Amino acid sequence: MLRTERLVLRPVRAGDADWIATEIARLEVQQWLTSPPHPYRLAHARDFVARFGSGPGTRVIDAGGTSCGVITIEAANSFADDRSEGWELGYWLRVDAWGRGLMTEAARAMLTDHRARHRATIHSGWITGNAGSARVLAKLGFLGPTETLRRHAHFRGGPVPVERVHLPADAPLP
User: What range(s) does the N-acetyltransferase domain occupy (predicted)?
Assistant: First the structure.
């Protein structure tokens, strides 16, 4: 478990599947994600919890007792076959948690924790047009965009442009 000034980043538990399924299924959230199936159902959330719940790289973001989202630093190819073997930062927040700096705070804590165990470059990105994610990654010191890829987004039914950035292993965290 990780703690910040406002957050607790805790392991994913079986009981999280209900709220995860509800929040990812929201148009405002899922439109910016490439990995989740569409439509997103409770069975998908249960599969996610079973697959990633026990590892140190996946955490629920809890703000004042409310589960606000999920953040991961996992091997990129654990989410989709078309991804590299490097480390990938991924995240999402429920809509009512947007715009409060929670994701930047959570990601900084996850990156610090990950660096204590691994000295490696971390990759991330956003679907073109997602200004919120672009701001989060810029505040964390990610460099780029270095390239634009086309990735399949289930919600959109086909490939979308994804802006790719990276945080070198030796880059200081702001």
Answer: 7-174
